[in-house]
Fold this protein.
Amino acid sequence: MSEENVELVREAMEALLRGDRDAWFAIHDEDFEIVPIRDWPETGVRGGEAAWNFHMRILESFEWAPIEVEHVDAGADKVLVHLRYDARGVGSGAEVELDQWFVATVRERKILRLQWFTDGVEAREAAGLSE
């Protein structure tokens, strides 16, 4: 497991959750790309500014319970993270329980790509990790 890459992803998550734009930008590639889960209304986001705005829209749309990191694993250039969390829609009050995975691709100490999944097997395959 690449501990450096895992630490980088942890730093990115923390920067995002505390709204630290400068710290977040410092560890993301300028061509950073988000590939959302298949059923998401947006097909993808490219570029740091667009990605930051995408994350902020999501964070501001919900009241978040603490995010539970269920599992972390890493290969040469990919980090797999399994998250569980509860949220309530700010406007609607609708409650959601989320069980999601993401694979972060790291290149030269920068996060280049973040791909989201709802299926752990599919996420592990995308990360190049076997069961």
Observations:
- The chain has a mean pLDDT of 88.
